[in-house]
User: What shape does this take?
Amino acid sequence: MTSVEILEEQIAELDSASFAKLRDWLIEFDQSRWDKQIEADSNAGKLDFLINAALAEHQAGKTRDL
Assistant: This one.
């Protein structure tokens, strides 16, 4: 049995309060990992194409004030 399968069995046995606590922790943990990945990608220049596209649209007059 894999570690994931063991975790799945253990999670299935949790009471509602414990499951809710785990779910909230997983959501926060996932968001934190996502933020770190976005920051790493940004620092590596992998998102520069988005900045360049937005600047080009703005310079072409395709944007509006919010």
About this structure: The chain is about 75% helix and 0% strand. The chain has one domain: 3-59. The helical segments are 3-12, 16-43, 48-59. Residues 3-59 form one domain.
